[in-house]
Amino acid sequence: MTSSKTPGYQEKSVLPEIAVDAEIDDEPAADPTQLRGKRGLVYLAICLVLIGLNLRTVFSSFSAVLPEITSDAGLPGWSLVVLTTVPVTLLGVFAPLAPILARRFGAERVLLGAMAVLTAGLLLRPLEVAGAGHLPTLLAGTAACGAAIALCNVLLPGVVKRDFPHRLGLMGGLYTTAICASAALGAGFTYPVFTATGHWTSALWFWAVPAAVVLLLFLPLAIRQPSVKHQAVHGGANVWRSAVAWQVTMFMVLQAMMSFSVFAWMAPILRDRGIDGSTAGLIVSVSIVLQMLGSLFAPALATRFKDQRIINMVVALMTGGGFALTIFGPTELIWIWTGLNGLGQGSLTAVALTMIMVRTRDSHTAAHLSGMMQGVGYGVGSVGTLLVGQLHQATGGFEAAGILFLVVGSLAAFFGYRAGRDRFV
């Protein structure tokens, strides 16, 4: 590899998470959020970061008390597989709807509605239905959360780019850090809340509080935005017919399989190995913090070169290997195995998103590739949590899942090599 940058559009893009605008095809172009001076801009920034801080707690909080939920609620084995898979699947299913809703109602109102649905879902899932137990509300609440998070995932980056064009570095760092911190908080604090209250329902209800606070904070700002209807005018390359786009998308699929399996199954894996719930939550939380470090440094390293084959392969193998060692390696070194997985996963997610920028020549194509990656990546990537759950049900342990992620990591390295070549969609 050489250290010269590829000329073109991707030179402008340092933070891929905020460089892709879901409203890029809108006509007329979406106006910036109407604010009242600099204080209004600061208020908007706080709201957007706080929204990001609520986008992953639903995944990591459930897994932190999964044994307690299973025991107390008497959940059948199939339901655990569904509850860990459905929210990730819905990230892909609802992603294409976000730009359509934004054209009709405005991005701010859609974000407000998504936060209302997220709050309702978090309140709903611990409820008990007379004669039916907890399962119906767990399923309905979890599905609502997944749909809401999908809308936020798509629209937040565009709003950040539109309203903070001269502060993309700062807002990008705050926004991406908030999302990672969300998963870490869910993993680290759910079990202590369970210990303090004595019931898993309280531990899950706890996460509705920050979501409701953000909903109330964002409400006055969102409802005063003018309603303007937009039409879609498509530009850029047809990503669905591009071999490069499919290679990048498969890279995203495989990283999503591992990423959401960490949120859904890492804590149960650690507890299955004899680690107590509080320590398991702390280990997962630290691993996610290390993901934050990987996500900060990997894109800058990847964009220094014309191709990203080597870095894509290395971080994919780190992630799959770290996951497998968490299952097979000696527990005395469990912090090392989970740390390796955390650094690898954070870097892997970041470089997968970086492919959006470095494999496209214009912002329209980048936005379409991002939509393809999210729709297919999350939709198919949810198979990872499904397979882990099915293998656990079939074998009674996680050893088969360890082998699975060695295979997934190797496949991610292969598609990362293909996606990392200096070619364009």
UniProtKB/TrEMBL annotation:
PROSITE patterns, per database record: MFS
Domain of life: Bacteria
Main location: membrane
Keywords: Membrane, Transmembrane, Transmembrane helix
Domain (Major facilitator superfamily (MFS) profile): residue spans on this chain: 244-425
UniProt subcellular location: Cell membrane
Topology within the bilayer: Multi-pass membrane protein
Segments crossing the lipid bilayer: 41-66, 78-98, 110-127, 133-156, 168-191, 203-223, 244-267, 279-298, 310-328, 334-357, 369-388, 400-417
GO cellular component: plasma membrane
Gene Ontology molecular function: any one: transmembrane transporter activity
Name of this chain's protein: CynX/NimT family MFS transporter
Originating organism: Paenarthrobacter nitroguajacolicus (Arthrobacter nitroguajacolicus)
Taxon lineage: Bacteria, Bacillati, Actinomycetota, Actinomycetes, Micrococcales
